[in-house]
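Incident log entry.

Two folding requests arrived from the same account within the same minute. Monitoring flagged them as a possible duplicate submission, but the sequences differ. Recording both here for audit purposes.

Request one:
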Amino acid sequence: AVVRRGHAAYRCHHRDRGLAAAGDHVDVGRVEVGVAVALGAAIPLTGFPPLNNAAEVLDVSSHPSRLVVLPTVLLALVAIACALMLMRRPLVPFPGALVAGGVLLFIGGGVSVIGSGDPTDSAVQLVIAISVPCLLFLALMAASLPAAPLCGAFVVMSCLLMLRGDLVFFETWGIPTAGDLFTAKFSNAPYDFHYYGLGNPDHTAGFLLLPYTLSLFWGLAPELSPRGRMMTLSGAAICFLSLLLLYSRSALAVALWFLGH
C-alpha cells in the first residue's frame, strides 16, 4: 500500500515538475529507471551468498568501524545519495500500525543491547538488522524512483538467487517425498540448499514471502499486460516452489492464505 501511494505521488510529482525539454525528461527518466533497477536487484544480492558473509569475513563485531564497508550499509548509503541527488518527493504518510511497529522494533532492539552480555556485538546487530534496513526504506521512499522497475528487479533477482538453491536441492534429493523435505530441512552440509538461501530455512521462507506476495498481487492487477502477468505470476510460482522445498509450515500457511485471497 505504501509503495502504491508513493508511486501515485511520484506520478504527480513529475506531472507538476514542468520540464521544459522533452529530451531532458527522457534522459532523467532513463537515469531513474537504471538506478531503480540497480537498487532493486542489490537488495536481495546483499542478503544471499557470498555478500551476506561479509560481516563475518570483516569481523565487524570486533571492529565496529568496518560497518561502513558492509554491502548492506553501502547499499543504504547509495540509496540516501540517490534521495539527495535525484528529484526528491515528499514522504507519503505511513500507516499508523507501520510507524508503531517500527518504534517498538527499535525499543526492543535497545532493550536487547542494554541486557546483552556483549553490548558491542548486539549494537552491531541492531545497526545491521534494523537501522540500516529502515534507512534504506526511507531513502527509497524519498527518492524519486519509479516503483515498477525497483520492485521488478527485486523480484527477478530474488527468484534467480532462489533458483540456484532449488537446483542444488534437486541435484541432492531428486523429486522429494514428504520425508525428504523434512530431512532436508534439518540437514546441514557445506554448500547445500540452505547455504544458497539465508542459512536457516525459516528465515529464508520468511524472506520469500516478500517477493511471493508482491508477485502474486502484482500479477493479478487488471491493468497488467498478458506478458507482464505471465512474468509476475512465474515469479510467484518460483517463490512458492522454494517455500515448498524449505518446508516451513508457518510460511506455507501464510502463502496459501494469500493465494486464497
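Request two (distinct sequence, not a duplicate):
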Amino acid sequence: QLSDLRGNLRQFPLTGHGEMLLQDGQIKVPAFQLKSGGSALSLQGSGADRLEFLLSLHSGNVGELWPGASGILDFKGRLQGAAKRPNFDLQLAAERLRLNRTGVDRLQVAGKGVLATDGAVEVDAHLSKLSQGDFNLTQGDMHLKGTAANHSLKLSGSNQRFTAAGEVRGSLHNRLWQGSFNNLFLNDQQIGNWRQQAGSKLAITPQRIELQQLCLHAPPGATFCVDGAKDTVSQAWQATANLHALPLTTITAATDL
C-alpha cells in the first residue's frame, strides 16, 4: 500500500497514493495515482486468468516528463479478457508537441486488437502540421491492420508542394519478414506525377534487408527503378538505380536551372 508519496520529479512536486492486493493468485489494483506538476497517471484493475486494467495519463506539459519536450498529451488504455489472449483498446491525443527540431501541432492515435501471436490489430493515426528541420507535412495518415502473418500498412502525407502515399503488405514467419511495396505515388509540383504500376518485393531478416525492383513511372514515358540490399551485421550496403526518358524540363524545374 502506498498511502502518501511526496517528493520532486524534475523540480516539480510529486505526489502519489494507491494500493495493490494479491489474493488467491489474483492481483487487484483498486486505485493507483501519481501526480507531478500538471501531469497525472492513473491505474486500476485486476488480473489473474482474466485481465481488466485501465490506464490513463494526462500531461498539460510534456516537458515535466521528458527533458527538452513540450506540449499537451492525453492517453487512455484498456486491457481486458483472457490473460493468454487479452484485448487492448487505446486512444492518444496530443497538441503542440515539440522535441528538439521536431514538432507536431496535433496528433491522434486509436488502436484496438488482440495481444497474441495470431491476434489481429488495427491502428489509425492522423497528424497535422509536422515539422522536422526544414521538412514539413501539412497532414499525414497511417492505417495498420492485420496479424503478424498477414498485415498491411498504408501511409499518406501532403504539404503545399507534394502529395504522396503508398502501402506495405507483409508477413512475418520465423524472424523473416517478407512483403511488398504497392500503390506508391508522388505528385510533386516540380518533378511531376510518379506512380508505381507493379508491386516491388521487400525482405527483412536480422542479418539482411533487400529491396527488388521498386519502379515509378511518370508521363509521357519516364521510369525510375531502384534495387538495393544492406547487411545489418557489417552495415555494408549496395544499390543500383536506373532513370529512363526523364524530360529535361523536369530536371530544370527541380534544380532551378
